[in-house]
Amino acid sequence: MTIPDDARPRLARGFRLKRDEVRNAWVLLAPERVIQPNPVAAEILRRCDGARTLAEIVDDLAASFSAPRERIDADVRALLSDMAGKRMITV
Amino acid sequence: AWTTPELTEI
Question: Which carries the bigger pLDDT value, residue A54 or residue A91?
Answer without folding.
Answer: A54
